[in-house]
Design goal:
The complex is a heterodimer of chains A (314) and B (349). By secondary structure, chain A is α+β, with helices and mostly antiparallel strands. In chain A, 54% of the residues lie in helices and 23% in strands. Chain A has a three-stranded antiparallel β-sheet, with helices on one face. In chain A, strands 6-7-8 form a three-stranded antiparallel β-sheet. A two-stranded antiparallel ribbon of chain A has the order 1-4. In chain A, a hairpin with a 2-residue loop joins β2 and β3. In chain A, α3 (107-127) crosses α6. In chain B, the strands form five sheets. In chain B, strands 6, 9, 10 and 11 form a four-stranded antiparallel β-sheet that branches. Classes of the chains: A alpha+beta (314), B alpha+beta (349).
């Protein structure tokens, strides 16, 4: 009975003692032992079971992993005075927990510093840059000559230049500026990315209106192009029709001419054998085509008259 | 150490006295034998240990085993044991499952045969194109956790980082192209570039995420601008229509003109044939008559004259005779015929 009680008590004490001395450092953590508010010993980066003096030593834990920072959405004017909304995000880690502990105590403290530094760095860089530079990247390759006709109508060459720096470089600039301005609080900024950029509400309306008018002008151009091409086709058609009919006409006249010539030649050959008889018979023929009540004018000396007299005199 | 011993003694001395003074004699306490109590406690401990040391890993999962916070291994699917009492802990990560992040929309329920989608996340979907226009892009990032340890221990919020990076990369890629490109031909290339760049960032963070695919969903101009885009499409259709109309008209007219032309030529050829044939015929006739005429010229001549006169005289109204030397007035002949002949039958000898 007494022994058992002893055992239990010893166990309780040992348990109490170990929980106050042993502590676990997680894989994700690094820790500092603080003795009466003063850090002692090295930073514990090795995960596993560790020990400290009970009651007088305390453990401060810090995340060892890469941490996330999400900036406020801020309105910043660009160099071209467009107001845009910029949302940045950054990655950082605690590299010097001792310094971190001394200067900012905890992550909340670090975050406020990060807010200050990163926001102002982003503001500085963005406000000194044209919007194109922020939107486009250094590997921008839009070839104006290869644009479809539709785009070419809406865009001008000057609008499509390769950015001098581009977004990637700007992000690096923000990172560099921020790292430089960052007081020594035992952290390392790993990267800064521009998560979102957009026009502010009122500018967005204007841009949309511009896009609408741009599209409308393209539509108008398509319509007039349709009109133009239709006219072109009809014009070509007219030309073709005239060519066809005139060629046919020419050919017809050539054929007729050749036939006339041939006929003339035939007549000539035939009638040429006796022109006088031809004249005679043709004259008679022409008389026979006279109409009713014709007044006939005859030379008194002509043969015809002679015969006429002979018939009447009979 | 002596302090500690004193302390223990103190407690030991005090402890047996405590309960007795509180618990009335013959109460519940004394009935429990201390031995049984300890045994019960031991059994409880064993059961708890047994229960807390068993865990199952599902087929699509891996378990990261930690002993006192330090990663010691990864367990494959199946039933496993671990050391109890918090000595070993496991964290289960679904490594085989293909996970998905949606941007600009959310799948509201995938239980129905047809998934329900909700748009209306303009903050995520609106972005700027290279020609500084606004475009609305919705996309999906499919990914897998291919390294459970890195996923858990290289970043605190790997999934959120994936989201942030996806937005950042998509905006960069879209901003690096002009709007119409994004709307039409650029889709596949944008998706591929975005996937590569997100993957690259994840590798740089070494966070165990592998991006499988980036898929663009709806890529459209902003709501208010859409009618104008439709107008362009309509205008393009109209252009096509006008060109087609004109072409149709030309296609109708030209063959017809071709036909007409052929007809004109054929008619000319007909005329030519006719003309030549007539000439040949007349020539033949003339030649034939001439041959006969030559055999007896005088008689034939007279006969022809007279025949002609016989034929024409009934039609003649008057005959004016012109005589040489006698200029005017001209002697008139056969005026009676002019009066009489039209209403009477021709005078026959």
């Amino acid at each position: 009975m007494k022994n058992v009680t002893y055992v239990v008590l010893v166990l309780v004490v040992v348990l109490l003692f170990t929980t106050r001395t042993a502590f676990v450092v997680d894989q994700a953590e690094q820790a500092i032992i603080v003795q009466l508010g003063e850090p002692v010993g090295d930073v514990i980066t090795d995960p596993g079971l560790h020990f400290r003096l009970p009651f007088i030593q305390d453990v401060r834990r810090f995340d060892k992993r890469l941490l996330d920072w999400d900036g406020d959405v801020s309105q910043i004017p660009t160099l071209g005075r467009e107001f845009i909304i910029v949302d940045t995000t950054a990655r950082w880690r605690i590299t010097d927990p001792l310094q971190f502990l001394r200067s900012v105590r905890d992550e909340a403290g670090a975050r406020t510093r990060l807010d200050d530094v990163l926001d102002s760095a982003a503001r500085d860089i963005v406000s000194g840059t044209d919007l194109e530079e922020i939107v486009r990247s250094a590997d921008w390759q839009v070839d104006v000559s290869q644009l479809s006709s539709e785009d070419a109508a809406a865009l001008e060459e000057a609008d499509l230049q390769r950015p001098k720096k581009g977004r990637g470089q700007l992000e690096k600039d923000i990172l560099a500026t921020a790292s430089q301005q960052m007081p020594n609080i035992g952290i390392e900024l790993v990267d800064v990315r521009i998560k979102r950029i957009n026009y502010i509400e009122s500018v967005r309306g204007q841009v949309e209106s511009r896009m609408i008018s741009e599209r409308q002008s393209i539509a108008a151009r398509f319509r007039s192009e349709g009109e133009g091409r239709s006219q072109e086709i009809l014009g070509n058609m007219g030309k073709e029709l005239r060519r066809i009919s005139s060629e046919a006409e020419r050919r017809a006249q050539e054929i007729i001419g050749a036939a006339d010539a041939q006929a003339t030649k035939i007549y000539g050959e035939a009638y040429g054998r006796d022109p006088a008889f031809y004249a005679f018979s043709k004259t008679l023929e022409s008389y026979s085509t006279l109409g009713e009540n014709t007044t006939l004018m005859i030379d008194a000396e002509s043969e015809f008259f002679r015969y006429l007299q002979s018939t009447t005199g009979r | 150490m002596s302090d500690a011993k004193d302390l223990i003694d103190q407690i030991l001395n005090r402890r047996p006295r405590g309960p007795r003074s509180v618990t009335p004699p013959g109460g519940n306490w004394p009935t429990v034998q201390p031995k049984a109590f300890v045994a019960g406690l031991a059994v409880l401990l064993v059961v708890w240990a047994a229960l807390s040391s068993l865990y199952t890993v599902q087929p699509e999962e891996r378990a990261v085993i930690k002993r006192f916070g330090r990663v010691t291994g990864i367990a494959d699917p199946g039933l496993h044991f671990k050391l109890p009492f918090g000595v070993e802990a496991v964290q289960i990560v679904a490594t085989e499952r293909v996970l998905k992040q949606e941007f600009g929309f959310r799948t509201e329920s995938s239980d129905d045969p047809r998934s329900q989608f909700a748009g209306g996340y303009p903050d995520e979907s609106l972005m700027l194109t290279g020609d500084l226009n606004i475009i609305q892009v919705e996309w999906v990032v499919q990914y897998q956790i291919n390294d459970a340890v890195n996923f858990l221990y290289s970043m605190r919020e790997p999934t959120k980082t994936l989201r942030d990076l996806s937005e950042s990369v998509m905006r960069r890629v879209v901003g690096n192209r002009i709007g119409s490109d994004v709307l039409t031909v650029g889709r596949i290339e944008i998706a591929n570039t975005a996937r590569d760049e997100i993957q690259e960032a994840m590798e740089r963070y070494d966070n165990g995420i592998r991006v499988i695919a980036v898929q663009l969903q709806d890529v459209v101009p902003p709501q208010r601008v859409q009618p104008a885009f439709n107008e362009v499409n309509e205008a393009r259709q109209e252009l096509e229509r006008m060109v087609n109309d004109a072409t149709r008209q030309a296609n109708e007219a030209v063959p017809r003109a071709d036909g007409t032309a052929k007809r004109t030529i054929s008619e000319a050829e007909g005329y030519a044939t006719e003309r030549v044939n007539r000439a040949l015929g007349e020539a033949a006739r003339f030649t034939a008559v001439l041959a006969e005429y030559r055999s007896v010229p005088e008689v034939t001549r007279a006969r022809l004259y007279l025949e002609t006169l016989t034929n024409i005289l009934p039609k003649i109204g008057s005959v004016v005779v012109v005589q040489e030397g006698q200029l005017s007035p001209l002697p008139l002949l056969n005026l009676r015929d002019a009066q009489r002949l039209p209403q009477s039958t021709p005078v026959k000898p």
